Amino acid sequence: MDKLNRILVIDDDESLKQEIEASFNEEDIEVVFSLTKDDALKKVGSRQHFDVIILDWFLEDPESSMLSQLVLGYLFERSFVPIFIWSKHIDDFNSVRETGIIKYPDVLVEGISKDEITADKLRNKVRQLFENSLTARISKVYRESITENLEKTFFELSEIPNEDLASILKVLVGSEENIDWSNDLILNLIHRRLLGDVAFIKKLRTLLAAAAGNLGTEEFAKRRKIVNKVLYFHGTPGIVRCGDIVAIEADGNVIKYGIVVTPDCDIEQKNTRYLEIIELRRVDDAELSLTDGQRQNLKDNTSSSFYYFPSIYVNGNYENDFVAIYKSKFIIEGSFESNVEKYPKVPKQLSYTGGFSLSDRNVHLIHICSNSNPYKSDFLQKVHANNSRVGTPDIKDLLNP
């Protein structure tokens, strides 16, 4: 089991320092101490990683948690790490936490009173917090392995003369706005090193095998979140790409949902100022009139007319199950100004900030999420060849009761 290597203690009570250090040093755990908010932010900003952070709640102020909340907000922007609120004001922490204003995930913050857990007992409690967070332990394995293999990757790239590397990357980048292939080159080199890293594979396998025995009690809503994380990726892309799931709006109202099926290479070409979109509708759409048997076929990926897109995150929830209707494809044209050449001589990708038209009606595209590979490939293969799911993990099994 991966042990704690380094912790950060943020507490203005300097009298605790010696006792805490003595306790943790018994297990060769390095303790870094900060007495002030500014020093804590400096240490976190240095990118030195801490496995766990212990934070006093009324830092530098006997009547307010404002500085402690600032530290939490700063950490949320820079470092994934479990937080242990260790304070004599734990009731105040719990009250503030209930308001929802703390900018740090609840699952990563635990509060314990200093009156209940003294400095000499703190080590065991902190170790327990870390060991109970599977995400924290996995992140430790990945962080150490990726860092090591990232350095090896760039040593490998440095063997290529600069002028040759530049010419290679130029070909892979293509249009200045498309770095996908260049990005894939770097990430694939790192990925290959991880797959060949025996120590990494062993650690990760051990963690996941141990955690597998604890599954089976999750709420159904939590499973939907997991499915969403696997099948889609989010963000705010500026450029329209194949596999984007979009809402089409007119006059401020959504008139259709769809998934872009124009190949990326076509979207980038000068003669393509339109998008092919396959319509998406909710599974429970009355106009579809799906029977229970047809809905089951959707979930089993055996339907010849529809493709199932479960748990798309729309309007704040994951309860949105959609189907792509193979035969319902429409064209959206990219707008252009009257004084601009319709088909410019250089590639110009279509942007979400640009205007579009659908059947002579002005519309806007709103990016919801993008279908992730290998599931995007699975969908496109189903669309064009009526054949799919070759080697693709059926993550949708998580949605079975």
> What letter string, H or E per element, gives the SSE order?
EHEHEHEHEHHHHHHEEEHEHEEEEH
How would you sum up the major sheet? 6 strands, antiparallel, barrel
Number of helices: 13
Count all strands and give the number.
13
- Rg is 26 Å
* Cα end-to-end separation: 32 Å
Mean pLDDT: 85
Question: What's the helical proportion of residues?
Answer: 25-40%
What's the number of structural domains?
3
Explain what the structure shows.
By secondary structure, the protein is α/β, with parallel strands linked by helices. It folds into three domains: 6-132, Response regulator (Rossmann fold), CATH 3.40.50; 137-215, no CATH class; 227-399, no CATH class. Helices cover 38% and strands 23% of the residues. The chain has 13 helices and 13 strands. The strands form two sheets. Strands 7-8-9-11-12-13 form a six-stranded antiparallel barrel. The chain has a five-stranded parallel sheet with strand order 2-1-3-4-5, with helices on both faces. The chain is globular, with a radius of gyration of 26 Å. The two termini are 32 Å apart.
